[in-house]
Structures are given as C-alpha cells and as structure tokens.
Write a structure and sequence with these properties.
The complex is a heterodimer of chains A (311) and B (258).
Chain A: E1 5-16, E2 19-30, E3 34-38, H1 45-52, E4 60-65, E5 68-69, H2 74-78, E6 81-84, H3 96-106, H4 111-124, H5 140-151, E7 158-162, H6 170-185, E8 189-194, H7 197-203, E9 206-211, E10 214-219, H8 221-228, E11 231-237, H9 243-254, E12 259-261, E13 264-269, H10 274-284, E14 289-295, H11 299-307
Parallel strand pairs in A: 3-8, 3-9, 6-7, 7-8
Antiparallel strand pairs in A: 1-2, 1-4, 4-5, 9-10, 11-13, 11-14, 12-13
Chain B: H1 7-27, H2 33-55, H3 58-90, H4 93-99, H5 106-132, H6 141-168, H7 172-188, H8 201-209, H9 211-225, H10 230-255
The chains are: A alpha/beta (311), B mainly alpha (258).
Bound molecules: adenosine-5'-diphosphate and magnesium ion (MG).
Magnesium ion binds at residues 45-46, 86, 162-163 of chain A.
Chain lengths: 311, 258
C-alpha cells in the first residue's frame, strides 16, 4: 500500500446465500480525492460500501483503509471514517440537537466538547432554527444535512456517502453538492455512490462503474464520457415527408450517420457548436422543426458503451 | 485483533444509549402506554368484573390480582423491549452505531438498562391502582418495596429472552404477536387471576409448571404475609439462570457477523 492511498480493495467478493452481489472488485482510492461508485439500482454499490465500513464481512478479499485491515482492525478503521448511509441513519424520534449530542458522546467527546461540536455543526449545516424539533418532522433535505453533520462529528479524514442526493429536489440537491465540495476543499477523502452520471461527473475526480457486482471500468469523468462518445442531437420535424432530406442534410453537416425513428432524427454530436450549423442548413432548405434537443449520455448509454463487447 | 473496549468506555457508551432510549420515550410517551394503561385497565376491569364471583368482593380479590396483573405487565413490558430492539435494528440508525468506534454491545445494553425504568413505572402504576381501589397489603410498605424489586428483577430477566427473540425475528410485528400470545398464555394459565384449586386436573398441572405461578405465589407471600418464602429464592435463582443463559446467547446473536 502506498502512503498516498486511502483505501485499497483487493479481490473483493460478497455472496448472499447463493447470490453473488459483488464479484472480484479491486480498486485503489487516493488520499484527498472524491471517488464515485457509479451504477444502477442493485449493482452492488451499497454492499461494497458496507464492506468498506465494517458493517458487512467480505466473502473473499481484503480492504485496507489508511493501512488498517477492515477485518483485522475494525475498531481502528471505524475511528477513521464518517458514514452517511443510503437510508437516514439518524434517530427520527429525537431532535437534531439530541442526535448530535448522543453521537458526539458515542464518538468519545466529553460533554462540553460535545456541546461545542454540536453547536458548530448546527450552524455549519443551517439547522439552528430546527435544532429542537424531532427529526421525524424534517424535510428530506434537512434530514440529509443532519445525517451528514453527524458523520462529521469526529472530523474524520475519510467520508462515505451512499447516494447522498437520491430523492432530493433539484434545489436541495445543489445545496448538497455545494456542501460536499466544501468538504473536498478541506482536504477530506470522499467515497460516494450514485446512480447518476451527471452527479458523478459533477463531484468525482475518478469514477468506478459497477454493474451486476462487477467493476466495469475506472477512470476520470472525461475519460468515461469519451468512451461513450459525447452527446446526442434529437430533432423532430414538422412534416414526416421531409425526413429523408433532413437525414441526408444532417449526415453531411455532422459527418456522422443520422438515423430516423418516426418523426425524430437522432445523430451523435461531437461538439455542441455544430447545432447552429444544423439549424442553419435546415432553415436554408425550408425544413421546419417542432423540437430540437441535445442529450448528454445517459446512464444507459454509458452502460451500453462500456459493457457491450465485454459481457 | 480487535481491541477490547475499556470498561469505562463501555459504561459511558451504555449510559449514553440508555439516555437515548429515555429521550425517545419522552418524545413519544405512547411508548409507555403498555406499562401505564395495562395495569390500570386490567385491575379495574378484572377487579369489578370478577371480584364478587371469585372472592366475594373487590377488596378481597385485590390481594390476588394486584401481584397477578403486575407480573402480567412485566411480561408485556419485557416483550416490548424485544420489538423495540427489532425496530431499532431495522432502522438506518443501527448501521451508524455499528460503524462507530464504540463498545459494540452498548446499544443493546442501553436498551436493557432503560427497560428498568419502564419496569419500575409499571410496578408503581400497578401498586398505585390497587391502592386506589382499596388494597392494603398486610405485609406493609417494606414488603411492597421488596415485592416490587422482585417483580422488576423478573421482568428484567425476561427482557433478555425477548431481546434474543427480537434479534432473531424477521420483523417487529412478528415479535409483537408472539409476545402477545406468550403473555396471554403465561398469565391466564397461572394463578394470576384465579385460585388454582378450581381448575381441572390437567390444567392444574400446566398452571403449576408455569413459572409465572411461582413468581406470583412468592409475591403474594411477601405482600400479604410479609414472608420471604423458598419460592422467592427459586424465583431469584431462576431469574439469574435466565440471564446467565440468555445474556450470552443474546450477545452472540447480536454480534453475529453478516
Ligand atoms: N443482505 C442481503 N441479503 C441478500 N441479498 C442482498 C442483501 N443486500 C443486498 N442484496 C442484493 O445484492 C444486490 C446489490 O445490492 P446493493 O448493494 O444494495 O445495490 P445498490 O446499492 O447498487 O443499489 C441486490 O440485488 C440486492 O438485492
Ligand atoms: Mg444502494
């Protein structure tokens, strides 16, 4: 293990009964990076995270966190990370303040240290106004913020976030992203899981794509997107009669093959600026359009591109 | 090897977890419903319904049912702890407890210590209801305290049993329905509400084997006669045995790697 490594996973597998949830995953996560585990629902992200956080015993393989083996030295390992689980891991029945105090005490802080830390975290996560309300009355966003605040009590060098924005509205999701970026700025190492390429792209320095418990590919967001081949242009025409002409025109303009399905023409888009050319050419030839859209590669596209030819 | 938690560490963690349980109860007082309502309801209902038929009057019946209903309440309070443990395990919070560098057993221990408070409340309510209805135990106040202590001890020993059930069961609902059945069978097939001599022979045998009968007999001797009987020793020995057998099993089930 290099001094620069935060986590080293070697040949990790997990079987539930006869079901193989994780198969032979090996990964290295560097100190100070944001590492994204990207995969669809049921891919095995949570299972991998639970093994890293000592909650689940690997069926095979080892995980080393800052030089400590998760199975041989779970206690030392537990002192090094904060975990925000996929499902709210705070106590619903009690208040935010009580949650922070209890988890501070369980993290080994003295009563006065716990008070200080809880006050600071309530402020940092804008929860002061609702500190004395039972968490059950919180909105999804507030709950996630509290959840994250609780994981940061011991100021751990490593933070695990399992689907930190799933189920949040766009505004709250952006707030969560901003909060995560602040953690990064402070130098923490962050491992997060997500089902959305856009989110991994937004936050992660490197991404591991997981599907059916297998590691498909590791790389920077740019490298993954390159593998998928950029965005797609979708154009809907007013008149179906003009489709053959339009397909020909777009194939010429974009230098890739355009295809038509019903009244929608689809073509790969290497550079978004080419949209202007397409629009100009269509209007020059009097081909009116109803709708035009540039689509980023979806999760499906990524999986299709990365898994085709491998499985 | 995993470092064993220092005892001070374990005690502090357990105290924090017990505090958490008490906070949960303060925020959701309905968690106390079973230990508050049940003894009042049963004592009033059974007292006025059956008092005349069984003992010739409410006052004469109270020395029989006050200890009976108290032990019945202990049973349901103990089983309540089993379903709370199951509920807790199924919530995301438990993952956090397990991922903290704290004494592993503290969440369980905290629950079982907080239970003592529930059991104490149940005991006070059961005795107070009887007292309000005219029950004046002949043994005097000292023996009331001692009998209350014995009841709480019995309830606490049983809560280890239900904790194990909570850990092994699939859902909190399953624990609840099983607990309800156990409570009904154990309390009604005992001397809690009736003099045993009226029972047919086979049922008498069942009731005499039922450990609840022995606890209640021991308590009646304390409350009504001020006597510490051999049966009281038996209850203590039996309770200690339950804890000695089930505490390690419960801890084993709790620490089972998944
Ligand atoms: N405790 C378990 N017992 C049996 N199967 C499980 C268990 N946990 C997860 N699985 C299965 O393993 C697979 C991966 O699950 P998970 O890691 O939760 O996926 P993700 O987090 O990527 O959505 C799923 O098919 C899930 O049903
Ligand atoms: Mg998951």
């Amino acid at each position: 293990m290099l001094a620069n490594d935060a986590i080293k996973i070697e040949s990790l597998s997990k079987t539930f009964g006869t079901y193989q949830a994780v198969t032979d995953v090996s990964l290295t996560i560097h100190k100070g990076e944001v590492f994204g585990l990207l995969g669809p629902n049921g891919a095995g992200k949570t299972t991998i995270l639970r093994m890293m956080t000592t909650l689940l015993k690997p069926s095979h393989g080892t995980i080393t966190i800052f030089g400590h083996d998760t199975q041989k030295q779970p206690r030392q390992v537990r002192a090094l990370f904060g975990l925000t689980g996929q499902y709210a891991s705070v106590d619903e029945d009690i208040t935010a303040w009580e949650n922070l105090m209890i988890f501070s005490r369980l993290n080994g802080l003295s009563r006065s240290e716990a008070k200080q830390r809880s006050t600071a975290l309530l402020q940092e996560f804008s929860l002061v106004a609702s500190a004395d309300k039972a968490v059950a009355a919180y909105s999804g966003g507030m709950r996630r913020r509290l959840d994250l605040a609780v994981s940061l009590i011991s100021q751990p060098p490593l933070i695990f976030l399992d689907e930190p924005t799933t189920g949040l509205d766009p505004r709250t999701r952006n707030q969560m992203w901003a909060t995560i970026r602040q953690l990064v700025a402070k130098g923490s190492t962050i491992v997060l899981t997500t089902q959305y390429l856009a989110e991994a792209d937004e936050l992660a320095d490197r991404i591991a794509v997981i599907d059916h418990g297998k590691l498909i590919q590791v790389g920077t967001p740019a490298a993954l997107k390159a593998a998928v081949g950029g965005s797609t242009l979708k154009t809907q025409l007013q008149s179906v009669n003009q489709i053959p002409a339009a397909v020909k025109l777009m194939t010429q303009t974009l230098h890739v093959e355009a295809t038509a399905d019903k009244s929608i023409i689809t073509a790969k888009l290497g550079n978004p600026n080419q949209v202007t050319n397409v629009l100009n050419r269509l209007s020059q030839h009097n081909i009116p359009i109803v709708n035009i859209a540039v689509q980023s590669p979806s999760m499906d596209d990524v999986f299709f591109a990365l898994t085709s030819g491998k499985n | 090897m995993e470092i064993i938690a220092k005892p001070t560490h374990l005690m502090a963690n357990t105290a924090t977890m017990a505090y958490r349980n008490i906070l949960k109860t303060i925020h959701n007082p309905e968690r106390l419903m079973d230990v508050l309502i049940q003894p009042i309801l049963f004592t009033v209902m059974f007292g006025y319904l059956f008092g005349g038929a069984i003992a010739g009057g409410v006052a004469a019946y109270l020395p029989t049912i006050v200890p009976g209903i108290l032990i019945q309440t202990m049973l349901s309070a103990a089983s309540g702890s089993g379903s709370q443990i199951r509920e807790d395990l199924d919530s995301g919070v438990f993952d956090r407890f397990k991922s903290l560098p704290m004494a592993h057993i503290a969440p369980l221990a905290g629950q079982l210590f907080a239970d003592i408070l529930r059991l104490t409340i149940a005991t006070v309510v059961a005795f107070a209801t009887g007292f309000a209805m005219g029950w004046r135990p002949a043994g005097g106040f000292g023996w009331v305290l001692a009998a209350g202590g014995l009841a709480i001890f019995t309830g606490w020993a049983m809560s280890w049993l239900f904790a194990l059930l909570g850990l092994l069961a699939k859902s909190a609902t399953m624990v609840q329905s099983f607990a309800m059945m156990t409570m009904m069978i154990l309390s009604f097939l005992s001397n809690a509400f009736i003099p045993l001599k009226t029972l047919p022979h086979w049922l008498l045998t069942v009731a005499q084997i039922n450990p609840i009968t022995h606890v209640i007999t021991a308590m009646r001797a304390m409350l009504n006669q001020g006597l510490w009987t051999q049966q009281a020793w038996l209850v203590i020995i039996f309770g200690v045995a339950i804890v000695l057998i089930f505490a390690p099993l419960t801890i084993l089930a709790y620490n089972k790697p998944n």
